[in-house]
Amino acid sequence: MHVPGVGLDLVDAGWHILNFLAPALATALLSATLAKLFWRSELRAVPWTRLCVVGTTVAAAALLGGLILTEHDGRMATYAGMITATAVSLWWCGFRPFRR
Prior knowledge:
Layout: H1 10-38, H2 48-70, H3 76-94
Helix pairs in contact: 1-2, 1-3, 2-3
């Protein structure tokens, strides 16, 4: 229960953090799934979970960077940075030259 003037309790803070990270998680899950679907043979050696973890990490970092730079959550530039960071991380994990 939230009492006016007291601030967030632990449950509210947890929900705020989860809602802040939800776009990063959704973007990473969707992009990793589509990448594995469309580039099945090229990404055969790369586990889906690795694509998801790396994508979520860089997308969350982009969201945090956008929050720090713009001092607001949910800016379009931040979401564009999140999409770009996720795409670059998928490329790095699956398509970069000389990958092993």
